[in-house]
């Protein structure tokens, strides 16, 4: 009798353990250097879209050391006694990228031209940091319908926010002087220090010195301040560009410094880092999306005194 009871208890315990393991079984991946959503999805045989859903990701950006859930197993049927082993095997593209096998004389510019895509898009998708190209380059596909919808939404959105004033017109030119002192600082995607800055981090850092707190990304910064036309540009205005054809929103930002020029941290394949370029140049005139003003001229103070309901402090 005792043996029967012990056998029943043991079998119930084993069943409980097996059931618990089945319900909690997941596969995770720790993000390391060189990883991106596509390579992780390919390794674990899941679509990029599902990988995003499992981890509630709204963008394709990942952080080093970030732990991602890449697969969840479903509990077995009551009659099953053994769980199949989860094997991480490569799979084909899920449709978001094209795999391009590089040739001997290929360059980043040639590949970008071949697929009618901006090279910054290729750099970000593959985390290419030097001049040497990997054997297989991932080319992000462009969804034209989604792209057009996002551009229309951004172009029709207007802002009428009250802004802080420059203490004087001289302060605007002091900002330009400070920004120019960063010329030559290296570009680094996701970087936030003078050892390496991306475009939005550079703009954010400069404006922090002048008592304006901006969001981290170019896309978010486009929603701050008041929209101004290209003809109305003033020193200190933020200028935005859509440098990636696969995106329907601004992906690059700089600070207008007058005379048709702007200063920015460039991710271009040549001359990476903080530099000055002309808005009229072929690339930037073609990719220009708009401008916003985050600090108003001191000459506008009188108008705000007449309309005190418009005055507020911007964050």
Topology:
Elements lengths: L1 H23 L1 E5 L6 H7 L4 H8 L11 E6 L24 E5 L6 H7 L4 H8 L9 E5 L3 H13 L7 E2 L3 H12 L11 E2 L2 E2 L1 H11 L8 H4 L4 E3 L9 E4 L10 E7 L2 E6 L6 E6 L3 H6 E6 L1 E2 L4 H6 L9
Parallel strand pairs: 5-14
Antiparallel strand pairs: 1-2, 3-4, 6-7, 8-13, 9-10, 9-13, 10-11, 11-12
Structure description:
By secondary structure, this protein is α+β, with helices and mostly antiparallel strands. Among the domains are: 97-141, LysM domain (Membrane-bound Lytic Murein Transglycosylase D, Chain A, Roll), CATH 3.10.350.10; 150-310, endopeptidase fold (from Nostoc punctiforme), CATH 3.90.1720. The chain has eleven helices and 14 strands. It has helices at residues 2-24, 37-43, 48-55, 108-114, 119-126, 144-156, 169-180, 199-209, 218-221, 282-287, 301-306, and strands spanning 26-30, 67-72, 97-101, 136-140, 164-165, 192-193, 196-197, 226-228, 238-241, 252-258, 261-266, 273-278, 288-293, 295-296.
Distance between the termini: 76 Å
Please provide the ordered H/E string of secondary-structure elements. Answer: HEHHEEHHEHEHEEHHEEEEEHEEH
The count of helical stretches stands at 11
Largest sheet: 6 strands, antiparallel
Structural class: alpha+beta
What is the level 1 CATH name of the domain at 150-310? Alpha Beta
**Percentage of residues in DSSP E strands:** 15-25%
- The CATH homologous superfamily of the domain at 150-310 is called endopeptidase domain like (from Nostoc punctiforme)
- Computed CA radius of gyration, to the nearest angstrom: 26 Å
Mean pLDDT: 74
The count of DSSP E runs of length 2 or more, i.e. the number of strands, is 14
The CATH topology of the domain at 150-310 is endopeptidase fold (from Nostoc punctiforme)
Q: What does the overall shape look like?
A: globular
Strand order of the largest sheet: 8-13-9-10-11-12
CATH architecture annotation of the domain at 150-310: Alpha-Beta Complex
Poorly predicted regions are: 17-24, 80-95, 143-160, 301-315
């Amino acid at each position: 009798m005792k043996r029967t009871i012990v056998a029943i208890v043991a079998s119930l315990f084993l069943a409980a353990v097996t059931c618990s393991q089945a319900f909690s079984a997941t596969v995770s991946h720790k993000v390391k250097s060189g990883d991106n959503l596509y390579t992780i999805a390919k390794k674990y045989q899941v679509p990029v879209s599902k990988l995003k859903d499992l981890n509630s990701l709204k963008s394709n950006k990942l952080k080093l050391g970030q732990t991602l859930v890449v697969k969840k197993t479903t509990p077995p049927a009551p009659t099953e006694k053994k769980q199949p082993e989860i094997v991480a095997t490569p799979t084909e593209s899920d449709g978001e990228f094209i795999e391009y096998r590089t040739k001997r004389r290929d360059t980043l510019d040639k590949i970008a031209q071949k697929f009618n895509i901006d090279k910054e898009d290729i750099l970000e998708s593959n985390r290419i940091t030097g001049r040497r190209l990997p054997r297989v380059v991932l080319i992000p596909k462009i969804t034209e319908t989604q792209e057009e919808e996002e551009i229309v939404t951004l172009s029709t959105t207007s802002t009428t926010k009250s802004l802080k004033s420059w203490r004087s017109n001289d302060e605007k030119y002091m900002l330009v002087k400070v920004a120019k002192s960063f010329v030559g600082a290296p570009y680094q995607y996701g970087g936030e220090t003078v050892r390496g800055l991306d475009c939005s981090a550079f703009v954010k850092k400069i404006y922090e010195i002048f008592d304006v707190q901006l969001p981290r990304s170019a896309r978010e910064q486009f929603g701050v301040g008041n929209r101004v036309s290209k003809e109305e540009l003033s020193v200190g205005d933020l200028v935005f560009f859509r440098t990636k054809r696969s995106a329907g929103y601004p992906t690059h930002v700089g600070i207008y410094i007058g005379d048709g020029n702007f200063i920015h941290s460039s991710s271009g394949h040549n001359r990476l880092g903080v530099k000055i370029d002309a808005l009229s140049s072929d690339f930037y005139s073609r990719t220009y999306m708009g401008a916003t003003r985050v600090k108003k001229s001191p000459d506008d103070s009188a108008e705000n005194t007449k309309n005190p309901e418009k005055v507020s402090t911007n964050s």
